[in-house]
Write a structure and sequence with these properties.
alpha+beta; Beta-lactamase; 5-stranded antiparallel beta sheet; 46% helix; binds glutamine
């Protein structure tokens, strides 16, 4: 393991520069106006191993918002708060093959509920399950959970991105009102959307994501204390969704070419894990047509291919 980390260290800067060239082929997300300001050519990666070692290369100092990556952790928190039966009464367990914000197929699952917790409709339903007495408290619980996993008490919102999405998120609003109509959302719709937009706007760096990923790679064990902070079963559920739905409607292709559980966000972030071994955080804001970081996916293909990380 240590030897491999050394090998990664020696090749990573070069591989990052090679993958960075692909950013040109992609586009920075602009449907959230504030995200359009992201640096298109940036690419950074941070890898942490279970023994406290780490490697990084490229633009690791760049801050970006978690966006859809946050959905993995709100799912875990909802499972910890209410258990599997409650969560899966609101969302299904199957991939859709559609865009992350699609309105298609919402009617098709019986009983009527979003296909899975990683598409927007499913994630909004899951966010509504996070416990707390007020929406402020529920948002704070989510933020504190993210801080614990990242081992970083200063994690906070990017308020510009939060406001930008809150002002323009009409599609997510319509999904949420649909869920309300179907009885899947019990609470005030705008309050749930506020919690959702906030957790999508938590600002991180690659090392924060790598640390969060490492907890998953360890089956829920906090690498600093050795104590379990997420039940193993819930980590297992999260890893399954990351594998089947984590890269949106490119999850099958990613499973073939990389073969690791991963979750991407429209800010260009990707969190991935090599179970039992590494937590990986990366960012490359230029996205391909399916909404995943072009350079980031390329870099993960290279790493997984050369070091034989595919789980399959
Ligand atoms: N906040 C974003 C949205 O709801 C998250 C989507 C994403 O990263 N794919 O549209």
């Amino acid at each position: 393991n240590t030897d491999e980390l050394g090998e990664i260290k020696s090749v990573l800067p070069e591989w990052v520069e090679a993958s960075r060239q692909l950013a040109e082929q992609g586009k920075v997300a602009a449907y959230i106006p504030e995200l359009a300001k992201s640096p298109k050519d940036a690419l950074g990666i941070y890898i942490m191993d279970t023994a406290g070692g780490s490697v990084s290369a490229g633009d690791c100092g760049l801050s970006f918002t978690m966006q859809s990556i946050s959905k993995v952790f709100t799912l875990i928190l909802a499972l910890m708060d209410h258990g599997e039966a409650a969560v899966f009464s609101k969302v299904g367990m199957e991939p859709t093959g559609d865009n992350f914000n699609s309105m298609l197929k919402l009617e098709l699952v019986e009983p009527s509920r979003p296909f899975n917790p990683l598409i927007n409709a499913g994630a909004i339903a899951v966010t509504s399950l996070v416990g707390g007495d007020s929406s402020e408290e529920r948002s704070l619980r989510i933020l504190q959970f993210f801080r614990q996993l990242a081992d970083n008490d200063s994690l906070d919102y990017d308020l510009d991105v939060y406001r930008s999405e809150s002002e323009t998120g009409h599609l997510n609003r319509s999904l949420a009102y649909y869920l309300k109509d179907k009885g899947i959302l019990q609470d005030d719709v705008e309050a749930v959307l506020d919690i959702y937009f906030r957790h999508c706007a938590v600002k991180v760096t690659c090392s924060d994501l790598a640390r969060m990923a490492l907890v998953l790679a360890l089956g829920g064990i906090d690498p600093s204390t050795g104590k379990s902070i997420i039940p193993r079963r819930y980590v297992q559920i999260a890893k399954v969704f990351m594998t089947t739905c984590g890269m949106y409607n490119a999850s099958g292709e990613f499973a073939i070419n990389v073969g690791l559980p991963a979750k991407s966000g429209v800010s260009g972030g990707i969190l991935s894990i090599v179970p039992g071994r590494y937590g990986i955080g990366l960012v490359g804001p230029a996205l391909n047509k399916k909404g995943n970081s072009v350079a980031g996916v390329n870099l993960l293909e290279k790493l997984s291919g050369e070091f034989g990380w595919s789980l399959f």
